[in-house]
Fold this protein.
Amino acid sequence: MNPWQTMRGGGSRLAPVTLSKFQIQSIPAPVVLGAVLLMCFGYNLGVPPLFDLDEGAFSAATWEMLQRGDFITTYLNGELRFDKPILIYWLQAASVSLFGLNEWALRLPSAIAASLWVVAVYGFARQRLEPTEGANVGVNAGLAAALIAAFSIGVVVIGRAATADALLNLLITLTLLDIIRYFQRPDFVLRNRVYVWIGLGLLTKGPIAIIVPLAVSLMYVAIQKRWQDWLRAVFNPLGWVIMLAIALPWYILQYQAQGQAFIDGFFLKHNVGRFSSTMEGHGGSLLYYVPVVLLIILPFAGLLLRILPRIKQAFHEPLDLWLWLWFGFIFVFFSLSNTQLPHYLLYGTTPLFLLMAKYRNDLQSKLLAYVPLVLWLALLAILPDVLHIAAAEVDDAYTRAMVQSVDSVFGTGYRIGIIAALIITLGFFFMRGKPVWQGLLMAGALHTFVIVQWVGPAAGELLQQPVKSAARQARQYTEPVVMWRINMPSFTVYRQQVTPRRDPRAGEIVFTRIDALPDLGAHEVIFKQYGIVLAKKLSE
């Protein structure tokens, strides 16, 4: 019996799970999925400190929103912040109001959004893939798709980050899944529900919430000759009323509050500007996302490579065509963008999760399945040594100071855990009598545990714990505190005071990096850890 097999029919879908020769009591698939979501997006959620720049910036802006009582305009350390619309800040502010200012509360909206994202994948795959699979593929596409999504490293990371991206991925997924449902069976409710998701997407990250569904659906109807259904959906007066009723009030209020600065900062700089020019050093190339896609879907890179030849058959299967167009548009659009970040490609991973689940039995090669994961785990195991070697080649006092602490941060427990996971993964490689994809799912669960138990906390300890400790010490001082030659807004969250970024004056406390001290002038170091420094400037 397949360890992840579910019984078809009604609401009694069960997931009998086997381990070696032993059969564990059959468990309802939703219970399996719930346990997985708790591990992926709940376990250790609040353990690592906030990561800068993104988590720190979102969290500091949310804290400042609560301090100001201004729920229309966001600020970061006293400066206007137009990077993203308002919805994620509202959700984070609500969570912090309920549970206090801490990492868990700030990340909770993203964890919930990522969990709902996986549930949406499960629901669609169960409805649309299972009835057509055939006996040779199995009846468990819903759970397989959900587990592939939940165990992909990109989803795990973004679902545990206090940013807007998990929420936007959820909304883009809901939008495009409902659009293909509509094309399969035109329906008044589906058509209007799409506009709800787009309206919320406009409040989450802006125009991208319209661009993606419009472009993908336009390509689809051009190939399928479904213009009548498309035009009826696009020129749907009630849908536009719903979308504008959700999104427009905040845009109007923000424009009334900030005027042309909002247009210039949000639309021109953080939307048009991100595509037309390189921002914040996040450049790339036309091939940037080729390795990125294999990385963010680890440990399922081999499965993706195996199903790529299926692209040739997409024109004969409308659902496959929709899914490949969805991924293809995201891949090409962001490859052409001058600002490139790995998580942008996540907007196009949902169709890959569905395709990999649908054709999971195409994966027959254990080498293709497990080699990418084994290499990745081996890299994690030797990561402390790699950091030491790299630091020796870098003429950077901050990097050297940080790496000196690697052995204490990535301690014995880290190495034992990673090596144990590597050995167990090799054991899956030699497992017989089960489809390759089933072993890969079990390896995916193990890999996710490695990330949330050891890798994430260790990275947080190395990169961010000094910032957190410095901020808490800075609370003790009555002198003004400034941020200089460093941009780590999580310092503001932990200090719970606005910390301006500017040149320091005599008598002020300076939060900076150790390599900036030679340019500070006369000073007294009052805190130093892993290259992060608090110093009092003694004279001009």
